[in-house]
Amino acid sequence: MDDLRNAARAAGYLAPGMARPEADAASDPTGASIFAAVQQLGLKLEPRKTPVDLVVIDHLEKTPTEN
């Protein structure tokens, strides 16, 4: 449970009862990748390609117009 709290704190999440980290505290500039951070929690991310629905709005009118 301590590892989970530490990972949440490092990611900037605060659970009830957790102290806010110091604003001056420097983060690790090299930073671990998201894959390494999740692996520390005992999980594994696998990269995959999958189709994703996408909506593109190319024009917007401020006042509505009739159809």
SSE blueprint and pairings:
Elements: H1 2-11, H2 34-40
List keywords for this structure.
67 residues, 2 helices, mainly alpha, single chain
Can you walk through the features of this model?
This protein has 67 residues and is mostly helical. Helices cover 25% and strands 0% of the residues. It has two helices and no strands. The protein has helices spanning 2-11, 34-40. It is elongated, with a radius of gyration of 21 Å.
In short:
The chain is mostly helical. It has two helices and no strands.
In percent terms, what proportion of residues is strand?
Answer: under 5%
Q: Report the order of strands and helices.
A: HH
Cα-atom radius of gyration: 21 Å
Helix content: 25-40%
Q: Write down the overall geometry.
A: elongated
Oligomer: single chain
> Separation of termini?
57 Å
Give the count of helical stretches: 2
Largest sheet: none
Structural class: mainly alpha
Number of strand elements: 0
- Stretches where pLDDT falls below 50 for ≥5 residues? none
Mean pLDDT: 74
